Amino acid sequence: MARNGIAKGANSGFVTEQRERAARPSRSKGKLGKRTALCREIAREVAGLSPYERRILDMIKTGGSAADKRIYKFAKRRLGSHKRAVAKREDIKAVNSKMRAKQAGAN
After folding, report:
1. pLDDT at 65
2. CA-CA distances (angstroms) from residue 97 to 30, 92, 94?
3. Cβ-proximal residues to 12 (8 Å cutoff; 6+ apart), any chain
4. Is the separation of the CB atoms in 72 and 54 below 8 Å?
5. Which of 46, 60, 76, 97 is most exposed by smallest CB count within 10 Å?
6. Residue 105: what pLDDT?
7. What is the 3-state secondary structure of the chain?
């Protein structure tokens, strides 16, 4: 925050220029790298979906009015947290759309 040169107040003190700080390595923690993404993609291709993921996929296909909520509740039970459940739901939806796109391309 810029100083205003006045002795009192929120921005009190000698007028100085803010320097741009270099990004700390801890800021990039948890970011998905290229290598990890590739490894996960290959593993998914080779191993396929786990049984509970197949069940979620089936729920997506059958749909229904409250399908999203049911899928979320099921995933949350299996994975333990809200964040993981929502991420898994979106992941399986992406898998479903990819499968549908592949099928549409084949026809």
Report:
1. 79
2. 26, 9, 5
3. 3, 4, 6
4. no
5. 46
6. 83
7. CCCCCCCCCCCCCCCCCCCCCCCCHHHHCCCCCHHHHHHHHHHHHHHCCCHHHHHHHHHHHHCCCCHHHHHHHHHHHHHCCHHHHHHHHHHHHHHHHHHHHHHHHHC
d(CA 10, CA 99): 57
Tokens of 61: 């296909």
CB 83 within 8 Å of CB 72: no
Q: State which amino acid sits at residue 19.
A: R
Single-letter amino acid code for the residue at 2: A
Task: Quick: pLDDT tens for 7-53.
Answer: 898 889 999 888 999 999 999 999 999 999 999 999 999 999 999 99
